[in-house]
Design goal:
The chain is mostly beta strands. The chain is globular and about 45 Å long.
């Protein structure tokens, strides 16, 4: 599969049209996706692939779901975990595939979930609710964590808050696996940062 590409598309399944994740073969020469199959996940939205390419993770109604990517590109469900928060909107892994970071738009929470050595989802190690007031009525004047992603050197974690126009910078304490706030980037009022 080294010279072949796959596409994994997450979609909400509550309208009865999609089952969750649709798997496609990618035909580079013709520039199109070729339907392969669907994998059932309740309202799969954001997806991410582990850095080692072995696993695919999906946001779902139940929290986060892990799939093994098989040699032919198909998916095999491994496990899922409740994130002890409202439904997430974005997920990312650290460079070593030790953690998954879940962004909570609806509750303004960022959640850290440990990954097991086999890539399956472990337990929640920390969760931080953002506090503060925003400046735009459409975003309800409150925190909305839109994206949590590690820096390229894997030393820090940036949590983009669309509601309060901030990017909070954390370090993960290696002994406790808890988040420690080290800086706050205050964006221009009403700028509504979303992704980093």
């Amino acid at each position: 599969m080294q010279d072949k590409y796959m596409a994994y598309v997450g979609s909400y399944s509550y309208n009865g049209q999609a089952k969750g994740i649709t798997v496609y073969d990618v035909d580079e020469k013709k520039g199109k996706f070729i339907y392969r199959c669907e994998v059932e996940v309740d309202n799969s939205s954001y997806l991410t692939v582990s850095h080692d390419g072995r696993m695919l993770y999906s946001i779902a109604d139940e929290g986060v779901v892990a799939f093994r990517i098989l040699e032919n590109g198909a998916l095999s469900r491994v496990n899922s975990a409740n994130i002890q928060a409202m439904r997430g909107c974005h997920i990312a892994t650290d460079a070593e595939d030790k953690f998954i970071f879940v962004s909570g738009y609806h509750d303004g929470k960022e959640t850290v979930v440990r990954l097991k050595p086999d890539g399956s989802i472990g337990e929640v190690t920390d969760g931080v609710y953002h506090k503060g007031l925003g400046s735009v009525a459409e975003r309800n004047f409150r925190p909305h964590v839109n994206c949590v992603r590690p820096t390229p050197d894997n030393k820090y974690l940036c949590a983009v808050d669309n509601g309060i126009d901030q990017i909070k910078v954390y370090r993960i304490n290696k002994r406790t696996d808890k988040l420690e706030l080290v800086d706050i980037v205050r964006c221009q009022r009403e700028s509504g940062p979303r992704i980093i």
